[in-house]
Structures are given as C-alpha cells and as structure tokens.
C-alpha cells in the first residue's frame, strides 16, 4: 500500500472528522509540512512540555518500533505530534490528548513507581497495549467516542507522522519524498 492510500484508509477508518474531507494528497502535504515545521523550529512552537514529548516518543515507539527498519523515533514522530497539536488540532482535542498523557504517567507511577518515559520497553508496551485494547473495545461497541479517545489520536498521529516522514517514506514505504520547492534567494550553507 502506498502512503497516500494508507493515509486515505486512516481517515476512512477512524481519522478525525476535520481531516475526513481532505484528499490523500492534502494529507501527505500537511504531514510533510508538519515535519518541516518540526525540523525548522525543533518543535519550539509546540504545546507539549519536554516530559510530554518524551512520553509521546516512548509511546509512539511502542506503536511503530525500530526493527530492521526505522521506528517512530527515527521518523521524528514526537515532534510531528507536537506540531500537529499546536497548529492543527482544536484546543479541546489537544487538552484531551494532554490529559490522556497525564493519566498514562499517573498509571505508570502507580503500577511501576516510575514515569512512563523512564520505564523499560516491556512495561511501556504493556501499558500501551492496554490502551489499544480499550480503544478496540470502544470501536467494537460502536461507541461514538472511540475516535475521541486520546490514544486513538496518538495512534493516528503516529502512523500519519511515520508515513509522511523521510525515514518512513524512504526506508519502509520505498517512496522518494517530493523535492522541496526551488528558492533562488535561499542562503548558501
């Protein structure tokens, strides 16, 4: 499946309503633009705290781990999520996402006496798998809130960020990213 088809599938099967009217091309362009913003600003304009970025990075790596191909960390998914929350998501959705991260950290501290980002990978996977199960139960019950669950948002953004990253496109999807636009006045390095 190519990245455009994958992104279109994501929207059709549980993407945010705000993105459901966009074409696959639009989704790719938004994703690539978010990666450029994250790289340019080192997500300085994002809304997540450094601890929240670490938690997102750890959870995203559980969703798309590094194997013989790049993982979510290699693809810069945490910075992508930060930019998307700051620039594209409504304030209420971003607040719900951040509240979910806080709950994840609280659960981690209660079960393992450590913040989520500091847990060994196996314990992180255990907590993330439980969240994924919760969302799956919501989806099977046809509950309207499945897509509003903060973990559904994280999973969606992780896949979107990975598929539109240079690492994801080159190494996994075997797609060459589109060249950037020509700027004749760009500074020489």
Beta strand count: 0
Order of helices and strands: HHHHHHHH
Strand content: under 5%
Q: Which value, in Å, is the CA radius of gyration? A: 17 Å
Structural category: mainly alpha
Q: What portion of residues is helical?
A: 55-70%
Give the low-confidence spans: 11-15
Average residue-wise pLDDT: 79
Number of helices: 8
What summary fits the major beta sheet?
A: none
Distance between the termini: 37 Å
Give the SSE map.
Layout lengths: L2 H10 L11 H18 L8 H14 L13 H11 L3 H22 L8 H20 L9 H14 L2 H7 L17
Structural description of this entry:
The protein is an all-alpha fold. The chain has a domain at 49-172. It is built from 8 helices and no strands. It has helices spanning 3-12, 24-41, 50-63, 77-87, 91-112, 121-140, 150-163, 166-172. Helix 1 (3-12) crosses helix 2, helix 3 crosses helix 4 and helix 3 crosses helix 7 (150-163). The termini are far apart. 34% of the residues are buried.
Question: Nutshell version of this structure?
Answer:
By secondary structure, this protein is mainly alpha-helical. The protein contains eight helices and no strands.
């Amino acid at each position: 499946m190519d990245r455009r088809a994958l992104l279109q599938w994501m929207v059709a099967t549980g993407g945010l309503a705000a993105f459901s009217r966009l074409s696959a091309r639009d989704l790719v362009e938004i994703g690539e633009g978010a990666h450029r913003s994250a790289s340019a600003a080192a997500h300085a304009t994002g809304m997540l705290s450094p601890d929240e970025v670490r938690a997102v990075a750890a959870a995203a790596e559980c969703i798309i781990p590094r194997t013989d191909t790049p993982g979510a960390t290699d693809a810069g998914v945490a910075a992508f999520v930060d930019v998307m929350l700051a620039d594209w998501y409504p304030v209420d959705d971003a607040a719900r996402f951040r509240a979910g991260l806080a709950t994840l950290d609280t659960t981690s501290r209660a079960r393992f006496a450590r913040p989520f980002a500091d847990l060994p990978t196996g314990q992180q996977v255990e907590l993330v798998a439980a969240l994924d199960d919760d969302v799956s139960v919501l989806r099977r019950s046809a509950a309207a809130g499945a897509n509003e669950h903060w973990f559904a948002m994280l999973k969606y953004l992780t896949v979107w960020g990975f598929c539109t990253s240079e690492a994801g496109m080159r190494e996994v999807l075997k797609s060459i990213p589109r060249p950037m636009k020509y700027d004749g006045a760009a500074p020489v390095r």
